[in-house]
Write a structure and sequence with these properties.
This protein is an alpha/beta fold. It has helices at 32-41, 59-62, 66-71, 144-150, 164-169, 174-181, 189-199, 219-231, and strands at 2-7, 14-19, 22-26, 49-53, 75-78, 93-96, 102-104, 107-113, 122-128, 131-136, 155-159, 205-210, 241-245. It has a 7-stranded mixed sheet with strand order 7-8-9-10-11-12-13. Strands 1-2-3-4-5-6 form a 6-stranded mixed sheet, with helices on one face.
Length: 246
């Protein structure tokens, strides 16, 4: 399965996953024209997008949804999450729940519940071409149900949002600091590393660390935290797994 992370971070998130002739997007959080441009740059024609799966309705995940209206792409989101999405034509709106599995031209997509300050946030498991990809973005914690859903993946796309000490020292209002650090906020580097130590088996899995805060994290810090945690399990980078920080 081909993975193209078109955008990642507080300014917008959009992931393209391609199996054979089928491409789906997870989130569309940058402007429609930027999505079109970045798709073409990685060799994907926008009118070949089979579906868009939304993790939650915050603007950095939904800003580009007019793309769906232009190309008549079905958009999937948690039922309650549609309360906050108003820019998708009604006939394109589809509901996902954590018991369902959805197929688009041979690519299977299964949602799982996450923990974020949204109505009905989801992560997604995408399977095709004998590969399993887990996408886990905005969430304040990783629970046992999420670990169970993501286990045995070949690719993990997971947020490593912040370093708590940098959040505490930031100029953010106390209410924002509390939100980021809460169980319905975002994953810290340490939380992400802990989840990956539960998931990685050393069979050559690909890890993408995503959604890094531009103010409260550093790519090298996110990278080091995960590498050190996996080293404690005797897993060596580029031998037992691969890692890329987006």
């Amino acid at each position: 399965m081909k993975v193209d992370i078109l955008a990642s971070g507080s300014n917008g998130n959009c992931i393209a996953l391609t199996a054979g002739e089928t491409t789906i997007l997870v989130d569309a959080g940058i402007a429609k024209t930027k999505i079109e441009k970045r798709l073409l740059e990685v060799g994907i024609t926008p009118n070949n997008i089979g579906a868009i799966f939304i993790t939650h309705a915050h603007k950095d995940h939904t800003k580009g949804l007019p793309l769906a209206n232009k190309y008549k792409i079905p958009v999937y989101a948690g039922e309650e999450e549609w309360k906050s999405i108003e820019i998708v034509e009604e006939d394109l709106m589809q509901v996902v729940d954590s018991e369902g599995e959805f197929f688009n031209h041979g690519v299977g997509v299964s949602p799982f519940n996450t923990h974020h300050d949204a109505y009905d946030p989801k992560g997604y498991i995408i399977q095709g071409d004998k590969y399993k990809v887990s996408v886990c973005l905005d969430t304040g914690k990783v629970d046992e149900f999420m670990l169970h859903a993501m286990q045995n993946s070949d690719v993990y796309i997971i947020e490593s949002n912040h370093e708590p000490r940098m959040v505490e020292a930031s100029s953010y209002p106390n209410s924002v600091k509390a939100r980021v650090l809460s169980d319905v906020g975002h994953l810290s580097n340490k939380q992400t590393a802990a989840a990956l130590t539960e998931l990685i088996q050393g069979k050559g899995e690909q890890i993408y660390l995503t959604h890094l805060s531009g103010n409260n994290n550093l790519p090298a810090l996110a990278e080091m935290t995960t590498v050190r945690a996996l080293m404690k399990k005797r897993f060596k980078r580029d031998i037992h797994y691969k890692l890329e920080v987006i």
